[in-house]
Amino acid sequence: MDKVCIVGIAGGSASGKTTIVNLIKESFGDDIVVISHDSFYKSHNDLSFDERTRLNYDHPSSFDTELMIEDVKKLKNNEPVDIPVYDYTVHNRSDQTIHIVPKKVIIIEGILILEEARLRDLMDIKVFVETDADERLMRRIQRDISERGRSVESVLSQYRQTVKPMHEQFVEPSKKYADIIIPRGGENKTGISILREHLKSMLV
Questions:
Q1: Is residue 196 part of a domain?
Q2: Helix, strand, or coil here: 55?
Q3: Are the C-beta atoms of residues 101 and 31 closer than 8 Å to each other?
Q4: CATH of the domain at 38
Q5: ∠ at Cα 125 (87, 71), nearest 5°?
Q6: What is the pLDDT confidence band of residue 183, given thresholds at 50, 70 and 90?
Q7: DSSP secondary structure code for residue 47 in this structure
């Protein structure tokens, strides 16, 4: 394989990153692979479930970004990797891994991927998905209840204590590093189309 194109897609929690990733995947089929920063949450086997629920999962230090950087470098060099699997229902990394082989397009997605300079430097395109805070909160409540076994109270508490302040401190400021900003997330068909065409042109 000649060239590997690394695309970073960042944005606040529930901003529409996954929707955009899925729409782009439709255009590239087997030539694309997606890696989530969430997969690299640090293990906390030494803590009880209650202790893990109280951790700040929106701070850069909660991720093993060092490992992610190593894995992305390997993929860029056409080497396969085994990435961790994170289990949201127990707030901890599972004992499973997923084998990833290099593809023409590698998408890295996560709230804080533009915050780390060494990770940014590996990206060919940096995208920030921008969505209204109220909309993101509503989506987060729906997602975390249906997919991650959370209660409304726990989602709101986490949002108030860590998600909102960390967004303002780390996520929003990282927007300045983006090459492309897509307002309104997955609803912005024009923005997604521009990104898709730009990606295609890079792979010619």
A1: no
A2: coil
A3: no
A4: 3.40.50.300
A5: 45
A6: very high
A7: S
Longest dimension (CA), the chain: 51
Above 90 in pLDDT, residue 178? yes
Residue 48 lies in a domain: yes
Q: How many domains does the chain have?
A: 1
User: Between these two residues, 170 and 27, which has the higher pLDDT value?
Assistant: 170
What was the pLDDT predicted at 30? 87
Cβ(115)–Cβ(123) below 8 Å? no
Three-class secondary structure of residue 33 per DSSP: strand
Taking only Cα atoms into account, the Rg of the chain, rounded to an integer number of angstroms, comes to 17
Residue 202 within a domain: no
Q: Is the pLDDT of residue 197 over 80?
A: yes
Residue 131 tokens read as 């969505």
In degrees, to the nearest 5, what angle opens at C-alpha 116 toward C-alphas 179 and 93?
Answer: 120
pTM, whole model, 2 decimals? 0.89
Query: What are the tens digits of pLDDT across the range 130-146?
Result: 988 889 999 989 998 98
Residue ranges making up the domain that contains 142: 5-189
Backbone angles phi, psi at 44, to 5 degrees: -135, 55
Among 8, 2, 10, 1, residue whose Cα is nearest residue 185: 10
Asked if residue 19 is part of any domain, the answer here is yes
